[in-house]
């Protein structure tokens, strides 16, 4: 159906709806409203112009409000005795017609004159016909216990749980970009606990002091104890930097914004800067919230390079300006926490490095941490009693947390490989191998042995070299702030 035909269908449905509503046929009128809403939704989805799409969305909201009015009138008339329903329908129709006329006055018609108020300039005794100033009603004092709580969220959040709904209600621009951020960046219901992260006691303690405690005790963290604006987690890949950021968000019960360079990139000029600005506006709306920039070196590298693009420089400038606007609010419910992680801290711009006041080195797991990581990764898999985790920890010196997870995953797959290798040796086809796997469910769930781990270690090697580790140590000594 062409857009013009769809517009005509909406107009005809609305005319039929108003005619039926004035006649008291609320059931039929509601069906016409639903038909018009259905067509309007299709127009909104198919519209490419942002301004026209916004206007169509406003019209759709108005239809929803009129539908609620029809439902309320129908319910009210249904509760009136049958012999009185005729008068009730006429009265309701008059009220509805008056509401429509009042809501949409004709700009070509002047409003009716207002009746003069004889008491407007009435003179009292001794007033000499002077106009008295209007009296301001005194407000009744409200007890402190009945007033607004200190940490109660802003009133706007009661009507709109999402920033996109709030923006659409206020008619704000760039609602589509806001919906993109909500879909791709915002994460809710994070369930990462501190116990899910092996060791890293110093990093956990610092994050609790810098982020968690100021939210718990906002009255204490003031003045020179004010919370840090930003925290940078740097170190080799696969050491748990993202898990630490999610654990902070879960501990503080904040809205978590997981940002990467790809989610903020756009081919349209100026759109990436808008997304950065909208990201911080949404974080303030959902405060207390946590913005986590993963691989921030890809988003805010050194400025002034030969290969730097103009769009990249604009994004960095906008990001730095927005981070300057994230102040440590006195109310903990209005705080925005900025966390960042990188595997290349030496590539970060100096201005951004200054704004990330805490810079914490997340090293490779120690021997004790490696034993704990083996236990965490294999907690849902049966392991034979002869497996010596301490010996495995000694054999995995220089492995990252991600490397150890790969070792455990490879060892847990050994039982499947044994069955498949035996089936292939017998010349089974793919369908026969599938039947063989289904028939040997008990063998698939066999306990992981020490030999399985040794075979996995022979395949999985460390992903971080000694040269990179020396470079991390040097940067931590020079710029670390833990």
UniProtKB/TrEMBL annotation:
It holds the Pfam family Vps4_C. One of its GO terms (biological process) is microtubule severing. Severs microtubules in an ATP-dependent manner. Microtubule severing may promote rapid reorganization of cellular microtubule arrays. Residues 128-138, 147-160 have a biased composition (Basic residues). GO terms for molecular function: ATP binding; ATP hydrolysis activity; microtubule binding; microtubule severing ATPase activity. GO terms for cellular component: cytoplasm; microtubule. It is an enzyme of class 5 (isomerase). The gene is KATNA1. Signal peptide: none annotated. Residues 227-366 form the AAA+ ATPase domain. Coiled coil: none annotated. Belongs to the AAA ATPase family. Katanin p60 subunit A1 subfamily. Keywords: ATP-binding, Cytoplasm, Cytoskeleton, Isomerase, Microtubule, Nucleotide-binding. This is Katanin p60 ATPase-containing subunit A1. PROSITE patterns: AAA (PS00674). It comes from the Eukaryota. InterPro entries: AAA+_ATPase, AAA_lid_3, ATPase_AAA_core, ATPase_AAA_CS, KATNA1, MT-severing_AAA_ATPase, P-loop_NTPase, Spast_Vps4_C. HAMAP family: Katanin_p60_A1. It catalyses: n ATP + n H2O + a microtubule = n ADP + n phosphate + (n+1) alpha/beta tubulin heterodimers. Its main location: cytoplasm. ATP binds at residues 235-242. Its EC number is 5.6.1.1. Residues 105-167 are annotated as: Disordered.
């Amino acid at each position: 159906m062409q857009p013009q035909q769809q517009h005509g269908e909406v107009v005809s449905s609305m005319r039929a709806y108003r005619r039926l509503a004035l006649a008291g046929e609320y059931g039929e009128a509601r069906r016409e409203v639903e038909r018009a809403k259905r067509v309007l939704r299709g127009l909104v989805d198919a519209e490419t112009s942002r301004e026209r799409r916004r206007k169509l969305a406003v019209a759709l909201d108005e239809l929803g409000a009129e539908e609620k009015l029809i439902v309320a009138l129908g319910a009210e008339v249904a509760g009136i005795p049958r012999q009185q329903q005729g008068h009730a329908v006429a009265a309701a129709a008059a009220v509805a017609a008056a509401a429509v006329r009042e809501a949409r006055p004709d700009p070509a018609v002047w409003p009716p004159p207002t009746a003069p108020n004889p008491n407007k300039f009435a003179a009292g005794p001794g007033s000499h016909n002077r106009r008295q100033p209007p009296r301001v009603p005194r407000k009744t004092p409200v007890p402190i216990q009945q007033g607004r709580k200190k940490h109660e969220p802003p009133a706007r959040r009661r009507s709109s749980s999402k920033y996109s709904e709030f923006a659409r209600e206020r008619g704000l621009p760039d609602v589509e970009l806001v919906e993109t951020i909500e879909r791709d960046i915002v994460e809710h219901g994070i369930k990462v606990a501190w116990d899910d992260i092996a060791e890293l006691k110093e990093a956990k303690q610092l994050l609790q002091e810098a982020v968690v405690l100021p939210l718990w005790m906002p009255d204490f963290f003031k003045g020179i104890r004010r919370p840090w604006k930003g925290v940078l987690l740097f170190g080799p890949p696969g050491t748990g930097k993202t898990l630490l950021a999610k654990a902070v968000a879960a501990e503080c019960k904040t809205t978590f914004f997981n940002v990467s360079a790809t989610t903020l990139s756009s081919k349209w000029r100026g759109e990436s800067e808008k997304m950065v600005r909208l990201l911080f506006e949404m974080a303030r709306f959902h405060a207390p919230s946590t913005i986590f920039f993963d691989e921030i070196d890809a988003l805010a590298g050194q400025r002034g390079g030969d290969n730097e693009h103009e769009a990249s420089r604009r994004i960095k400038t906008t990001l730095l300006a927005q981070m300057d606007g994230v102040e440590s609010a006195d109310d903990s419910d209005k705080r925005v926490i900025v966390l960042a992680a990188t595997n290349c801290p030496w590539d970060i711009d100096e201005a951004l490095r200054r704004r990330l006041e805490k810079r914490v080195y997340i090293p490779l797991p120690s021997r004790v941490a490696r034993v704990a990581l083996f236990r965490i990764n294999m907690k849902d898999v049966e392991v034979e009693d002869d497996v010596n985790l301490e010996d495995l920890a000694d054999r995995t010196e220089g492995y990252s947390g991600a490397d150890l997870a790969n070792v455990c995953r490879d060892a847990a797959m050994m039982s499947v490989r044994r069955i498949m290798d035996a089936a292939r040796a017998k010349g089974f086809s793919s369908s026969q191998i599938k039947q063989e796997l289904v028939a040997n469910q008990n063998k698939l769930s066999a306990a992981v042995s020490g030999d399985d781990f040794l075979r996995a270690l022979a395949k999985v090697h460390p992903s971080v070299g000694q040269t990179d580790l020396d470079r991390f140590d040097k940067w931590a000594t020079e710029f670390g702030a833990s």
